[in-house]
Amino acid sequence: MEAQAIKERIYQFLIQLKQADGLQYDTELFQSKYITSLFALQIVQFIEREFHLKLGRRDITEQNFHTIDAMAELVQRRLGDGGEGNG
Q1: Other beta carbons less than 10 A from residue 29's beta carbon
Q2: Could you give the CA distance from residue 38 to residue 45 in angstroms, rounded to a whole number?
Q3: Which of 13, 19, 27, 35 gives 39 a disulfide partner, CB atoms 3.0 to 4.6 angstroms apart?
Q4: Whether 55 contacts 78, CB under 8 Å
């Protein structure tokens, strides 16, 4: 799946959750207080459902979820290795 398509799906999900004035693919979601830990859990569940992945503990880090770009990179990596979680 192309990175742009992944980014757009994640973006669309985020704007359904919360007002998205100025939200960009590179917006720092935690620093800007756009997402909280509760939203983060919803995002993890969305990514697993939407892209048919099982994320492991090592996948669920602030580094992988700090921007839409980072989430899309995570999805692409996980799709590339079969989608199975690692711990």
Answers
A1: 22
A2: 11
A3: 35
A4: yes
